[in-house]
Design a protein that fits this description.
- This protein is of the alpha/beta class and about 260 residues long.
- The chain contains 9 helices and 9 strands.
- Helix content is about 35%, strand content about 15%.
- The chain has a 5-stranded mixed β-sheet with strand order 3-2-1-4-9, sandwiched between helices. A two-stranded antiparallel ribbon has the order 5-8.
- α3 crosses α7.
- It starts with about 30 loop residues before the first strand and ends with a helix.
Length: about 260
């Protein structure tokens, strides 16, 4: 059975003076940070479905595609803005962490009226009404929601290779793994060269020493927690040396921090 976690807000994650003052009902407000790379009309359908007076939207479009069609699709909605900092985000790559952080930073800097941020894929679609969502946020004003699974659970041992070896994202479709899968001549040469460089000790290590968890990228975080997350990234530089060479890093990143 999976271990599902719901984390209550950790006290004093950010100085109280940095936080806006919210009324009781304002704590149900949210910004939907939506990541898209295809199907502009599907994005429009999602935004239209989630429209409510307590929310607004930030859209992050992958840098590998033209943003024009997406801007046109949601141009009729006054509460939609786009994340300005964009990346070519291969699935499972460090670039998607950068996209996550860019969207969260822009929200913190430009959108003080909402209390929490909800990360979504443009392929998502709600199963309940906006009234149900607002009631849920209102009843849990200082809660963060994310799923996580400990790597110590037996059924996740198969995923350890995503963490304890190296991944080099050369292009959107070309990833080099070290150590390699299989013992072809090319893989043996590649592994020999990387080993001889002395720069990639095995297994890949966790320099921060935090327990590592596996889970979903699609989290719901309060403003206070996001301030802590951004501050953590500024203070702890070692993670930048580790996460670019992991696979599916976004499933580990918010759980580590």
């Amino acid at each position: 059975m999976y271990e599902l976690g719901v984390f209550k807000l950790i006290p004093n994650l950010a100085p109280e003076s940095t936080l806006p003052i919210y009324s009781a009902m304002a704590t149900s407000s949210c910004t939907y940070l939506i990541f898209a790379h295809k199907n502009p009309e599907q994005l429009k359908r999602l935004v239209e479905r989630l429209q409510a007076d307590y929310c607004n939207f930030l859209i992050s479009i992958d840098k590998s595609v033209d943003r024009t069609a997406f801007e046109k699709a949601v141009s009729s909605f006054p509460n939609v803005n786009f994340v300005q900092e964009r990346y070519v985000s291969q699935w499972g790559s460090y670039a998607f962490i950068k996209s996550n952080l860019a969207g969260i930073k822009q929200w913190l800097e430009t959108n003080p009226e909402t209390h929490r941020i909800v990360l979504l894929s443009a392929q998502d679609y709600p199963l309940v009404s906006n009234d149900v969502l607002r009631k849920f946020w209102f009843e849990h004003p200082e809660m963060n929601f994310l799923s996580y699974y400990s790597f110590e659970q037996p059924h996740l041992q198969q995923h350890l290779s995503r963490y304890n070896r190296y991944y080099f994202f050369l292009t959107k479709k070309l990833i080099i793994k070290y150590p390699s899968d299989g013992q072809t001549l090319l893989n043996r040469v590649k592994d020999t060269v990387l080993k001889a460089s002395g720069q990639f000790p095995l297994p890949n290590s966790n320099p921060l020493g935090y327990p590592l968890y596996f889970g979903s990228n699609w989290v719901r975080l309060t403003r206070k927690t996001c301030l802590y997350l951004i501050d953590f990234c500024k203070k702890i530089r070692l993670w930048k040396n580790t996460f670019p060479m992991l696979y599916v890093q976004t499933r580990h990143f918010t759980k580590l921090s």
